[in-house]
Amino acid sequence: MSREIDLMILGGGCAGLSLAMRLAKLGPRCPQTLIVESRERYVNDRTWCFWGTPSAQLTSLVRHRWSRVRVSAEGRQREVECASSPYEMIPASVFYEAALREVAANPRIRLTTGTAVSDQPVRTGNRWAIATPFGTHSPRWVVDTRPVRSPRRGDAVLWQSFYGREILCETDRFDAGCATLMDFLPTKDGRIVFVYMLPVTARQALIEITAFAPDPLGPELLGELLDGVLTKSQAISKSETVRVESGSLPMGLSTIAEQTHRNWCRAGLAGGGARPASGFAFQRIQRWADQCAEQLACGHGPCSQSTDPWRLRAMDDLFLRVLRARPEAGPSLFMKLFAMPDSGPMIRFLNDCPRWSDCWRIILALPPGLFLRELLKGLSSRKDLRAQPA
């Protein structure tokens, strides 16, 4: 069976639904859209966080804000006041509910769940042919948000792997006004490992083990590390697990799929949706969704994630190379960033909107020796490659 539609979105996760929300607001101008999602139903499987700057989007979905954030390493602690740009959290359940409600309100958008598309779209004439278990579709445009493949070594400079449990304690245990972004554990096996804790009440918090490493790490290993952290506190060990979440985010993709046809693009994490140096993705994806929806509303093809300015790409690349080459230095580097007298440059840098002055302040806050050595090493490697015979 052949069904002609305007747009097919492969994958109804954060990127696919974010785009669909923008398209739904177009009303009758919305292209006839089909979203194909492999999961049977949506559950509270993620937590998206970002800094509440003036440009942040979908802040009506935020369910908790922290005006203070904390980092700790080797007995030292830094606490940053960030009331003007608070650290904010959107639970996946809240985002999914809002997105599905908006999508359902526009009859020009249809979502199918429990439907897997394993093959790549094939160009036939002026349309694409996409086979599903329920028939073949022939959209004019395709936005592919699916992962290219399972995370593996070499596909990114580093992988940010995480495993967390949202727990409910019997007694007051947490400071709900302060989020612990990084509480570093001893560096081992080339991995930078830390505890990430988001308390939403005095008794309830999401506690995660996060690792920056060349290899993606599974929930079994990270779960064992989290067990060790939780058992150190009697108050936390006697707690109820509300839910769990886990995953691996690319930090510096080795290759990002280029848009080879104006009527097809890749989006989401595989399309560069995550900030290389931090893994923050939610607000980047929202900005892409705005741009892509505008293109489609004008009758043009979909667009890929915008490329970061060269200075940001260069800083991210060098920072990740230093972390990979010298993981034992990672905790002290992050401590220095959070020790800056003014947190504004750091927050804008992490939030993809640094000024030139912010970049210089970040550079001056970090030890130059590590970065100069890694920079020279990179230049030497490129020189060696150019010297090799073709």
Topology of helices and strands:
Layout (H helix, E strand, L loop, with lengths): L1 E2 L3 E4 L3 H11 L8 E4 L10 E5 L12 E3 L1 E6 L2 E6 L5 E5 H13 L4 E4 L9 E3 L2 E6 L2 E3 L3 E4 L11 E14 L8 E7 L7 E8 L4 E10 L5 H13 L2 H4 L1 E15 L10 E3 L15 H16 L12 H16 L4 H9 L5 H7 L5 H10 L2 H20 L3
Parallel strand pairs: 1-12, 2-3, 2-13, 3-9, 6-15, 13-19
Antiparallel strand pairs: 4-8, 5-8, 6-7, 10-11, 11-12, 14-17, 14-18, 15-16, 16-17
Helix pairs in contact: 1-2, 1-5, 6-10, 8-9
Report on the structure:
- A 7-stranded mixed β-sheet has the order 7-6-15-16-17-14-18, sandwiched between helices. The protein has a 5-stranded parallel β-sheet with strand order 9-3-2-13-19, covered by helices on one side. A 4-stranded mixed β-sheet has the order 1-12-11-10, with no helix packed on it.
- It has 10 helices and 19 strands.
- Mean pLDDT is 92; it is low at 383-387.
- The protein folds into 3 domains: 2-67 and 90-148 and 257-297, FAD/NAD(P)-binding domain (3-Layer(bba) Sandwich); 156-252, D-Amino Acid Oxidase, Chain A, domain 2 (2-Layer Sandwich); 310-387, no CATH class.
- It starts with a strand and ends with a helix.
- Helix 1 (14-24) runs parallel beside helix 2 (92-104).
- With 390 residues, it is of the alpha/beta class.
